[in-house]
Amino acid sequence: MSASFITQSRHVRVPLVLGILIFAEMDQRPSRKRAKHDHQTPYSDEEVSHSPPALSANLRTGITSSATLGTSPNYKYADSNIKLTGIQDLPTSENVDTVTITSILGYGDLKEMVQLNYHVDLDWLMSKLPPEKANSLPTTVVHGWRQDEAHIIKAMLLFYNDDTMRVVIHTANLVSSDWRNKTQAVYTSPVLHKKRSPQLSSSPAEMSMFEKDLTDYFKAYGHQLSRFCELFKDYDFSECKVCV
To answer: What CA–CA distance (Å, rounded) separates 126 from 59?
Structure first.
């Protein structure tokens, strides 16, 4: 197994806006089991769609519930690429449109991965790779804590042998318990292709907001991750429609 570890606990920029987007999407599904003040009558559909969490989510994301919109054929729903993780002890019917650590790491022909996280069980992580990759995939792990500081960012860079890559930003530690029966949120970028010509590598003025923020974040680690900042210049991030 080819893995390098970088212990890092310094404070760097947190992907706060992406976190807001994740919670906005989750808030659109308030539970109908909650009771009103009399603790007896459940919320109606109308009350749910007009609840403060749902209305706040609508303002932040531009996503409006069908109860508010009606059935206008001209309305387009935003695809945030944010999904929830599957719950092991729930039936398949309840794990609709979810992702797992296996489905994330099993996609495509991986060439290299970078894992940034707080708590990492490396043996467990590598066991979730396809068997032919588990002992040979070049892997960089950034993790750690020091006194009252902690490296809390949870993200992945996944590079593939067809010269594409994906960026994954999520809420789970890289340990079994976080991916088994806890609800976590995962943003997965579209498959990012290299620009058609090396001459098209991004200058700062030409970067998308996503690429600029991702590059600035990795620069905060110093020389240890500078290689990836250079790699980002070769990829087209224009399809990433979220903020980091």
So the answer is: 40
- Which pLDDT band holds residue 72 (cuts at 50, 70, 90)? low
Domain borders along the chain are 3-14+80-232, 22-69
Say which range, 89-93, 205-209, 235-239, has the weakest mean pLDDT.
205-209
> Do the annotations mark residue 83 as ligand-binding?
no
Which amino acid is present at 84?
A: L
Q: Alpha-carbon distance 198 to 194, whole Å?
A: 9
Handedness of CA 217, 220, 224, 227 (dihedral sign): positive
pLDDT tens digits for 147-173? 555 667 899 999 999 999 999 999 999
- What is the rounded distance in angstroms from the CA atom of residue 85 to the CA atom of residue 101? 8
Question: Between 16-27 and 52-61, two packed helices, what is the crossing angle to 10 degrees?
Answer: 130
Q: Is the pLDDT of residue 116 over 90?
A: yes
Is 163 within 8 Å of 194 (Cβ atoms)?
yes
Output 238 or 23, whichever has higher pLDDT. 238
Q: Does domain 3-14+80-232 have CATH number 3.40.190.10?
A: no
Q: Are 155 and 6 in contact, with CB atoms under 8 Å apart?
A: no
